[in-house]
Amino acid sequence: MEEKAIICKDLTKQFGDFVAVNKISFEVDSGEIFGFLGANGAGKTTAMRMLCGLSFPSSGEATVAGFNVFNQQEKIKRNIGYMSQKFSLYENLSILENIEFFGGIYGLSDRQLKEKGEELVNTLRLQKEAKKMVGELPLGWKQKLAFSVAIIHKPKIVFLDEPTGGVDPITRRQFWDLIYKAADDGITVFVTTHYMDEAEYCNRISIMVDGRIDALDTPTNLKKQFSAETMNDVFYELARGAKRSDN
Amino acid sequence: MSAIKIEHITKTYDKGNVTALNDISLEVAKGELFGLIGPDGAGKSSLFRILTTLLIADKGTATVDGFDVVKDYKQIRGCVGYMPGKFSLYQDLTVEENLTFFASLFGTSISENYDLIKDIYVQIEPFKTRRAGKLSGGMKQKLALCCALIHKPTVLFLDEPTTGVDAVSRKEFWEMLKRLKEQQITIMVSTPYMDEANLCERIALIQNGELLSVDTPEKIVASYPQQLYAVKADNMHKILNDVRFYENLQSVYAFGEYLHTTFKNDEAQIESKLTAYLQQKNNSGIEIKKIEPTIEDSFIRLMTEASLIKQH
Questions:
Q1: Where are the domains of chain A?
Q2: Mean pLDDT by 10-residue block, N- to C-terminus, for chain A (247 residues)?
Q3: What keywords are assigned to this protein (chain A) (predicted)?
């Protein structure tokens, strides 16, 4: 039997009286592209932080890449990649320097760094820009680069937090090509987005409302379940019932 | 008289090395709800800052409500409302204090123009003693809109008010804009979400500092020069790669649950020929149909054409 990338059972996070994440349970298969949707303030970021080993759950159970979120957080960090809409590479380092830096942190050898660096620059067609400061690149290229750096150590899972926000429609699609390629290479992709067309590109989607997961299935089945034409309608149907709108 | 008139505006940064806006001209009529649609880095914020007199263009002229953006900056600052992309209210002041502050800056009071903001303000009024920095994203956005409206501006500039906002809040926000439009306020709003374009009366598609098109959303879509097809199969990733190698293909890209494609020769039986090709490549559950394009399809097409012209 294939190992699950993420197993989550009744995972909960409470801040005082406020239950940010309320007993969420789900499993993500290895190599799956899993869309993690929800309204602002539904609890997505808090849940993601627990899964990335950055925040202790209040109760429940979860394993990520086979490691326990309570007592193996450092092992989790070593086996995942993370990228968000907020650009996280060093703007005043060149592309190659960023690759060397982040690859180095994840323990790649000098030889691997060199190979990976060349491979990445070639795939993204950034040969001419390889020695340019990253800050000078257009946003779309930055995001593609940040994604490639986030998976440079071939993690089991990559977490993407609104990776395509504000990116032009062509680059957005090129970004999804990279996601598909990563999934083909066996990397599990856990992604959040506000673009409902992108929800369709996921194998399965969960939708969070007020700290709970209120729906979880393939896009096709969700549309059937809610008798909706589009994912946008499904999302609207679920999220408009939300009591919370806070971040 | 136009509410906004922009003539040949060019703006560069970094000693001319970066062109933010390249020879932009457009007009917005009084009372119009006008959308500036384009991704981050397209030049939208630079244009807003020029029109709100916060930035001076290298070349060209612009007027807002008849006032020149350079000479008459004081008048413009008095009559426009501006909501920048970045939250810019005082985080340490409460909701009510922020609103009172902005009202008094413009020599007015909350009560004087309460009608204008009422619909929006009632939603945040329960939290009026809360500090602005402690508000949620959606509530911050509503407060910022109230502060931009409190002096009853003639022209309202909203720079990406819905970025990072979920689909439900976005819908609510656009309903608020429609109600403001009924009060004869001219609104220029920018967004990276192509689906919001249809909610504007006219739009400008902007990319790399250049206008790709300025028209009503309906006309932009109607000027799409070719038949567009939607294609799907059980395995979408596989079919995308297969369609990419189809002989008669002009363009293909993912679009929600379908691929959108155009063909070099719009020949008869295009559907059956493509189906045969895809079946031969072992795709199952194939569906092909003719569809009407969306603004996003138009944008992708215009963007591709613009970059092809640049390369030649």
A1: 4-88+155-239
A2: 86 95 96 92 92 96 96 95 87 94 93 92 89 87 92 95 88 92 94 90 95 95 94 89 63
A3: ATP-binding, Nucleotide-binding
Q: Which residue from B139, B255, B304 is facing A197, i.e. has the nearest CB?
A: B255
* Model ipTM over 0.95: no
Architecture per CATH, B4-217: 3-Layer(aba) Sandwich (3.40)
Q: What is the DSSP string of A157-190?
A: EEEEESTTTT--HHHHHHHHHHHHHHHHTT-EEE
The beta strand positions in chain A, using DSSP E, are 4-15, 18-29, 33-38, 59-64, 67-68, 80-84, 157-161, 188-192, 204-209, 212-217
Q: What is the pLDDT of residues B267-295, one digit of tens each?
A: 788 999 999 999 999 999 999 999 999 99
CATH placement of domain A4-88+155-239 = 3.40.50.300
Check B167 against A138: CB less than 8 A apart.
no
Asked if B126 reaches chain A (Cβ–Cβ under 8 Å), the answer is no
The verdict on pTM exceeding 0.80 is yes
Of the partner residues B38, B169, B256, the one whose CB lies closest to the CB of residue A40: B169
Architecture of domain B228-292: 2-Layer Sandwich (3.30)
Residue contact A196–B303, C-beta within 8 A: no
